[in-house]
Each structure stands twice: as structure tokens, then as C-alpha cells.
Amino acid sequence: MNSPFRRSVAGHRDSIRELVDAALLGLGSETVRLREARGRRLAATLGAPRSLPPWDNSQMDGYAVHTGDLGNGRLRVVAPIAAGEAAPALERGNAAPIMTGAPIPAGANTVIPIEAAVPDRFPDAAQLAAGFHVSLPATAEDGAYIRVEGSDIAAGDTVLEAGTRLGPTTLGILAGLGIGEVAVTRRPSVLLLSTGDELVAPGGELGPGQIHDANTTLLAAALDSAGCTVTTVGVLDDSPSLFTDSLRTALASGERGYHLVISSGGISKGAFDVVKEVLATNGIEFGSVAMQPGGPQGCGTLALPGCDPVAFIAFPGNPVSAFVSFEIFLRPALAEHLRLPARPLLEARLTEDMGSMPGKLQVRRGTYRDGIFTPLGGASSHLLAALAASNAFILIDEDTTELAAGQTVQTLVIGDGS
Ligand SMILES: Nc1nc2c(c(=O)[nH]1)N[C@H]1C(S)=C(S)[C@@H](COP(=O)(O)OP(=O)(O)OC[C@H]3O[C@@H](n4cnc5c(N)ncnc54)[C@H](O)[C@@H]3O)O[C@H]1N2
Ligand code: MOO
């Protein structure tokens, strides 16, 4: 068993990064169909395999004509061009009815909307067969109402950069370009567990002294948003032997094993801190990091006899501590592998005086809006409602004990944590 560590925030971040780097080495990419790609990140920058539009086409229902034929009286109307058809070349002196999205025939250089024609209705087949003429405005701009080939994107141009998180609009352009499947970054497989005999799954009845398990849901959502596939085991028993048995069973449940195991709770100085008790003899180091919330931490490669070694990160049990730990230590380590954008670190003006604990990086929650940070709740790490109402953290360094209203503070914008 190692003696407890005492680490700076940067030191622990490095330890988590090393652990995650080793665990996710060679994670690679997989190819998925577009319908399965929402929320996934592109593994490589994509070039357009063809131009959009693929050919010049009409922006309006109207007549395709040559501007040189306008102003010379009525034009003879030829067969209409529908969207989805090849367009025969247009002879000079003629006007071709053309529908929105139909290819511009060779020989035409403008489209006159039907509303500007006299009559303002297309001829039917019988009228066409009998010979039909149309009056059009005397002038039109060359290229009017023509959507030019490649005006949306030209073949070979970059469509989307590697790391783009695919959503409705980015998937839409890929589909429009005829790309049916894409290479996306693989999702690491994470086993997530909570500990504490006081915990009851949300929806369950509480007995005396019990509370609902917030961390499984909170951390699963955070990991999921970061691009992990999460398997939750709920709350493991606080007795060391039952905890160990359940952990073995949970580890064995992963078909191809887990890249990472995350726990919350049971790592501080309590008499029943089971995670620490069991895991400290099986490869995991525990100690404290100069940060509040999120002081107690553990990590290492779990070597439980009979199980494959696996990277293990133990977060503290208080929900705010667990989430702050995720944001400060784990998300940045996952970011490089999963191509996550870094959280913006901005300067903001503080709305009120605040005190801070010396010797620790204090992470306070609140709202960031238009360069202003408003703290919500206090420093305590059980304040879930204030966390839920927050969209940012301020990072108060270990040498600062007092902050005044109006002072500039470093603000990490996390949004809703997704
Ligand atoms: N004597 C000391 N006591 C404590 C210290 C210390 O240094 N000396 N550190 C405190 C700090 S800071 C933290 S953070 C917590 C961390 O404790 P654990 O990681 O051992 O977590 P637990 O004791 O299991 O739980 C702490 C707290 O959080 C609640 N909790 C736990 N899991 C969940 C969950 N899944 N959902 C909702 N709430 C959860 C639990 O009921 C406790 O109230 O230790 C301090 N103590
Ligand atoms: O370090 Mo703890 O997370 O303050 O409550």
C-alpha cells in the first residue's frame, strides 16, 4: 500500500492524464452510418467528394431563357424541365418552363419567375402541342435565379474538421454530399459505480438516514456527453468483501473489458471508506489534492486478483466534488482522445466580495453572462441546486483569500456540463 499523496491540482491532472492516455492508447475510430452518428466526433477532416449544387439549377419555378432573347417580343415555349431530369439544350429564341431545382439547360443564362410571365401559368400539354408563346420582361440579369454549381461547397473543399461533433446541420451537409457513413472517434467504455450504504437509487423509497444517489446519474451524463459509453452498476455495498465481489462481477460484465472505472465516495477519512480500504492494497493511490471541492482523490491501475488490470479513478462522494473533479481532472484528459473542445477560460468581473480558503485552488460555482460572474451558493460541496443553476466555475488560486466585488476572476465556462 502506498502512503497517501499530497498533490497540487496540476500534479493530479498530470497523473490522471497519464492514466487516461495509457488506457485509451489506440482507441481509434469506427465507421458508422449517418443515422447513428449524431453526437459522435469526426475522426478525420472530410473533403467534399462532389460539388453542391452538383450543377447549375433553378432557384424558382419559371422560364429558362437567354437574356439576349428578351425584349424581342414573345418567345416560343418548349418542353418543360422538371427537377430530376436531364435538360436538353435550349435553342435561342425559345423559353423552357423550368421547376425549382431542375438543371439549367445549356444555352440559358437566366430564369424569369413564372409570376413575371404573361400568362403567369405554365401551359398544359395540349397548349404546348398547339404552339404556345409567352411574354417575358424586356430585361433580366445574367445569372438571376440560377444556383451555380459549387456555390454551396466545391468538390475537394473541407466540409468538416476532425473533431466536429455531429448534429442535425453537420449531418445534413454530409447527407447532401452523398456521404453515407463516417469515421468517428470510438467511445471509451466506462464502468461507473457509487458507494455508500446511505444511498438509494432515484425513484426508490428512503429509509432513515438515507439519501438518493445523485452521482451515478450526474457522472453518467457527464461521461456520456464527453463521448464515453457508460455502464452503471449503481451503489456497491460498503462491506469490503461484498464490495470486492460486486466489483469483480461488474468488471467481468464488460464484454471486451472496460477502458476506465470511475467511482464516487468512500475515499476520505471515514470509518467505512470502503473504496479506499479495498483498493489501496490493489494498486490505487489515495491522497489529497490542493483543491476545494474535490480534495480527496484516488487513481491508479487496479490490479484485483483474477481481473484484468484496469485504469481506476476514485472521486469524492459529495456531488459537487465529484462533478468538479470530473471537469478539472478527467474531462481535460479525455478531451485529447475524444476531440472535445476545451472549456473556454474567460476573464469576468465578480459581482460580490468573496473569501477563499488559503492553500487550495477554490472552485466556486455561479453564472457567467456578458463578462460578469455571479456566485451561486457557498463553497460547500453538497449544494447541488446551486450547481444546477450555474454555468461556470471561477478558479481562485491558493494564495488568494479575499476577492472584492468588481475584481477580475478567471472563469471556466461549462454551460450545462454537456
Ligand atoms: N475528517 C475528515 N472528514 C472529511 C474530509 C477530511 O479531510 N477529513 N474530507 C471531506 C471532503 S472535502 C469530502 S469531499 C468528503 C469526501 O468523502 P468520501 O469521498 O469518502 O465520500 P463519502 O463519505 O462517501 O460521502 C461524502 C458525502 O457525499 C454524499 N454522497 C456520497 N455519494 C453520493 C452519491 N452517489 N449521491 C449523493 N450524495 C452522495 C454522502 O452521503 C456524504 O454526505 O469527505 C469529507 N469528510
Ligand atoms: O474536497 Mo470536499 O470536495 O470539499 O467536499
Overview of the structural elements:
Pathway: Cofactor biosynthesis; molybdopterin biosynthesis. Residues 191-336 form the MoaB/Mog domain. Pfam families: MoCF_biosynth (PF00994), MoeA_C (PF03454), MoeA_N (PF03453). One of its GO terms (molecular function) is molybdopterin molybdotransferase activity. Keywords: Magnesium, Metal-binding, Molybdenum, Molybdenum cofactor biosynthesis, Transferase. By secondary structure, this protein is of the alpha/beta class. The chain has four domains: 5-27 and 186-338, MoaB/Mog-like domain (Molybdenum Cofactor Biosythetic Enzyme, Chain A, 3-Layer(aba) Sandwich); 32-50 and 159-185, Molybdopterin biosynthesis moea protein, domain 2; 57-147, Molybdopterin biosynthesis moeA protein, domain 3; 345-413, MoeA, C-terminal, domain IV (Beta-clip, Beta Barrel). It has eight helices and 28 strands. The strands form eight sheets. A seven-stranded mixed β-sheet has the order 1-18-20-21-17-13-16, sandwiched between helices. Strands 8-5-7-6-9 form a five-stranded mixed β-sheet, with no helix packed on it. Helix 1 crosses helix 7 (319-338) and helix 4 runs parallel beside helix 7. The longest helix is centred in the last third of the chain and has 20 residues, at 319-338. It is elongated and about 100 Å long. The two termini are 36 Å apart. The mean pLDDT is 95. Molybdate ion (MOO) binds next to loops. Residues 292-296, 316, 318, 321, 381 line the site of molybdate ion.
